[in-house]
Amino acid sequence: MDLKIQKRLAAELLKVGESRVWINPENAEEISKSITKEDIRELIAQGQIKAKKVKGVSRGRAKELQAQRKKGRKKGHGKRKGTANARLNDKEKWMNKVRALRRKLNYFKKQGEIDSKKHRELYLKIKGNFFRSASHLESYIEKLKRGK
């Protein structure tokens, strides 16, 4: 039984490729008799002819890898292609550090550990790259409190 014409017509009507047209094998004889687009439309309405879903590429393995990398795995020397600067450039490093320091500074101000004047002074020191890290800022504030 040749259903080439029916497949072509169905593909046109369903707006898919011929490979995605599914024809019910149980009613193949009845379908082979239908030769007009109107006949094919009726068969589509009855559910004798359908469009198959598009096959995609599974993201399962990619998601698994991503989860591992999020944990810090698979990031060793052998997996790196770009320079350290390409992976996290100087500006991004700076932004991360400054934002962390400013968060910490605001936290200390809200806690009442430093006043507005000290806050402004330390804010400008952060901007001038005086502190290496948030822990450095903490230790500096501790020294200030002990000095008083």
Describe the model.
This protein is mostly helical and 148 residues long. The protein has two domains: 4-51, 50s Ribosomal Protein L19e, Chain O, domain 1, CATH 1.10.1650.10; 88-147, Non-ribosomal Peptide Synthetase Peptidyl Carrier Protein, Chain A, CATH 1.10.1200. Helix content is 61%, strand content 4%. The protein contains eight helices and two strands, in the order H-E-H-H-E-H-H-H-H-H. The protein has helices spanning 4-14, 28-33, 37-46, 60-70, 84-87, 90-111, 116-127, 134-147, and strands at residues 21-23, 49-51. A two-stranded antiparallel ribbon has the order 1-2. Helix 1 (4-14) packs across helix 3. The model has no long low-confidence stretch (mean pLDDT 95).
In short:
This protein has helices at 4-14, 28-33, 37-46, 60-70, 84-87, 90-111, 116-127, 134-147, and strands spanning 21-23, 49-51. By secondary structure, it is mainly alpha-helical.
